[in-house]
Amino acid sequence: MLESLNPQPQDKILQLIAMYRDDPRTTKIDLGVGVYKDATGLTPVMRAVKAAEKKLWEVETTKTYTGLAGEPAFNAALVSMILGDGFADRAASVATPGGTGAIRQALELIRMANPAAKVWLSNPTWPNHPSIIKYLGMPMAEYRYFDIATSGIDFAGLMADLEGVAAGDAVLLHGCCHNPTGANLDAGQWDQVIALLQRKGAVPFVDLAYQGFGDGLEEDAAATRKIAAAFPEVLIAASCSKNFGIYRERTGVLVALTSPDRKAVVQGNLNFLNRQNYSFPPDHGARLVTMILEDATLTADWKAELEEVRQNMLTLRQTLADELRRATNSDRFDFVAHHRGMFSRLGLTETQVNRLREDHGIYMVGDSRINIAGLNARTVPILAAAIAGVIG
Ligand code: PMP
């Protein structure tokens, strides 16, 4: 049986990690994989997470199964963190293995409810979106998003393409901190997208993987909250991997907003999907998040550390934009300071990206996406000088 399997194409980012690992140069710089790193290059366990783990060890008396949807307290805490108050009667939800698990469950829910529904993706998007959709055999379409000339949003292209959305289609939107571009809709543009999708009868599907990494915890949820208030049905796949720094614990949630009288049926279908795919969702990370969000002191400390992380990335953005201005004697890269989240697409050619890697030991994804958090005060000028060299 297994001899009939074909080799899978290599994941480009994982390939990059291996190349970086095998590079003997001590001056090498890793701007590839999407994890937050502090100034020393470490991905720390957050203080509040450590404190919650210690407390959990003391108070946990059993590791028997949780509920199929996860612990209700976790789901409620996440619904409130994402949406604020006032949505509990419309929100069916299940805990999932990370944001990826939530995306996968959302797609399966869409397919179960309406096999003809197309899933619309921004071009570009996180490569795992089209990969999972293709694997599930679901119809898919793209809308323009990124303007290569300005490294901002191609808003006219986006609106023109979304005119093609049919009633019942699902439109995947990055709630904040777009991956891979770093370019995000402003409030007025969100309003126009919402009005267009309302007119089309679309179902918004929000991927919220970086709440707290852009403009702030509340600010990063603003678009999702507007969408939640504007549509009868919304799917939200949220991840705690980045904002709680618990990547390997696999902690996420899928929220399906519906009418209060449909909520029980939708909840039953979400539970069913968990049962088919893995029964009970992982608990450890979800429990830590709940403990943090239910304890005022831990919440305050977590928010303070998350804010340090966010500010660190903003400072790196500004210094990189300034250094690039100096090194290239142009404003071509000013957008780096306006982008938000962990990533920016720099708009370099594949040849230039390869030269940065080969000549300078600087590793970024082939589409010239950099992880801002991979930089520090010492490496920002090195990157700026190298970029000036390869584009000159
Ligand atoms: N969505 C986007 C846009 C992401 O970048 C990521 C993480 N790279 C995820 C979802 C999923 O994250 P995880 O499964 O690690 O929680």
Automatic annotation (TrEMBL):
GO terms for biological process: L-phenylalanine biosynthetic process from chorismate via phenylpyruvate. Residues 27-387 form the Aminotransferase class I/classII large domain. It comes from the Bacteria. The keyword Transport does not apply. CDD domains: AAT_like. InterPro entries: Aminotransferase_I/II_large (IPR004839), Asp_trans (IPR000796), PyrdxlP-dep_Trfase (IPR015424), PyrdxlP-dep_Trfase_major (IPR015421), PyrdxlP-dep_Trfase_small (IPR015422). Belongs to the class-I pyridoxal-phosphate-dependent aminotransferase family. This is Aspartate/tyrosine/aromatic aminotransferase.
